[in-house]
Structure formats: C-alpha cells, structure tokens
Amino acid sequence: MERLAEIEKLLFQCEEDVKRLAQIHKEIAKIEENRKKIAQYYDSQYMQDFDNQDNFDRDYAMLDEDSIWNVLTSLHSEKIALIKTLVNAI
User: Fold this and answer.
1) 14-43 pLDDT, tens per residue?
2) For residues 33 and 24, what is the distance between their CA atoms, to the nearest angstrom?
3) How much is the CA Rg of the chain, to the nearest whole Å?
4) How many other CB atoms sit within 10 Å of the CB of residue 72?
5) Domains of the chain, residue spans
6) pTM above the 0.70 mark?
7) What is the CA angle 83-74-50, rounded to 5?
8) Helices (H), 1-90
9) Residue 53 near residue 63, CB atoms below 8 Å
10) 74: helix, coil or strand?
C-alpha cells in the first residue's frame, strides 16, 4: 500500500509538472517576443541613440556599450542549454 501511495503522489506531482511545462512554454514565447523587440531596436536604432545620448535628459541603461549585446548573447546561450536539456529528457 505504501508503494501505491508513493506512486499516486508521484502521479499528482507529474500532473502539476505538466501544468508547469505548459506555463514555461508560454513564458518562452514571451521571452522570444521580448528578444525580437530588443534585437530589432539594436539592429535599427541603437547606434543613432548611442551616438546622440548626450542629447537625452538622462542616462539609459541600454545605451552603454555592451548591455544589449550581453543580454542577447545570454538569451541565446540559455536557449541552447534548454534545448540540450530537453533533448536529453526525451
């Protein structure tokens, strides 16, 4: 009976895990949407804003030399690590 109770508990945990994976899937879609927006800014407007930052009323974090590049690189690296984890889990 203890074995069955343990497996039942595991079943309920796996059902919760399915919900968490579905939520992670949604979060990944939002993360990718954010990445696309900042990459588009970086590719189209960043250099102009960077060159004219003395004209702005305050300093903006994304106008330092590396912040956007670093976050895009980190997102890429994390996605690769996630893909590897998922492939190994299949």
Assistant:
1) 999 999 999 999 999 999 999 999 999 999
2) 14
3) 21
4) 14
5) 2-89
6) yes
7) 145
8) 2-44, 46-51, 67-89
9) yes
10) helix
